[in-house]
Amino acid sequence: MEIMKKFVFCTLILVCAAAIFFSLDKDKPAETLKLYIVDAEMLHLIPTEITVRKTDVQGAASDVIAALIRGFDDNPKIRRLIPKIRGCMSVKVKGNTAYVNISEAMIKNHPDGRDLERLTVYSVVNSLTSISGIENVQFTINGKIRRDFMGYMDMRGAFAFEKVV
User: Fold this and answer.
1) What are 31-75's pLDDT values in tens digits?
2) Phi then psi dihedrals of residue 93, to 5 deg
3) Low-confidence residues of the chain, pLDDT below 50?
4) Is residue 148 in some structural domain?
5) How many CB atoms lie within 10 A of CB 78?
6) Based on the structure, what is the number of domains in the chain?
7) pTM for this one?
8) Are 61 and 142 in contact (CB under 8 A)?
9) Is residue 11 part of a domain?
10) Cα–chain-centroid distance for residue 141?
11) Domain hosting residue 86, numbered range
């Protein structure tokens, strides 16, 4: 009988410890978002999933931009268009629009070409609009709305998700 009491007591302690452990884990939930990255041939955007900390829309947008800058250099099936320069892009969310500011450093270190510019723009737009609550993306360059990013796309209006093939 004594062994049975010890067994029940130990089981109760383990159940309580597990309950505490899993309740602590709930404080740090994660969510899965789509990140659109450029394929190895630099012709298409490939949707891939990333897991980020569950937060508000602004936090998710910041996580997406950070992931795009960080890139996936160890994956031979994709290419980097967004330079790995800390602070080359930032994002602020107001309403259902994400305002992405591009720095001069990103422009100087971005490969030239109309198709590459389009892939970069829609990599950012499609990734951000995969976040619930963001429908449009407006770009600024060094804090100002400019006519173009690299000379090819008109950047004065807001962008929405577009399938890039």
Assistant:
1) 899 999 999 998 999 999 998 878 899 999 999 999 999 988 888
2) -105, 125
3) 10, 16, 21, 23-25
4) no
5) 18
6) 1
7) 0.79
8) no
9) no
10) 19
11) 29-141
Distance, in Å, from the CA atom of 149 to the CA atom of 6, rounded to the nearest integer, reads 71
Residue 116 Cα distances to 13, 15, 126, angstroms: 59, 55, 15
Cα angle, residue 83 at apex, residues 98 and 121 outer, rounded to 5° = 40
CB 95 within 8 A of CB 133: no
Q: What is the pLDDT of residue 24?
A: 42
Which residues have CB under 8 Å from 105's CB, separation 6+? 83, 85, 87, 88
What per-residue confidence (pLDDT) applies to 121?
A: 95
Sheet of strand 30-39: strand arrangement: 45-53, 30-39, 78-79
Given this model, what pLDDT does residue 4 score?
Answer: 62
For residues 1 and 7, what is the distance between their CA atoms, to the nearest angstrom? 10
For residue 47, the one-letter residue type is P
Token pair for residue 119? 């892939």
CATH number, domain containing residue 68: 3.30.70.2210
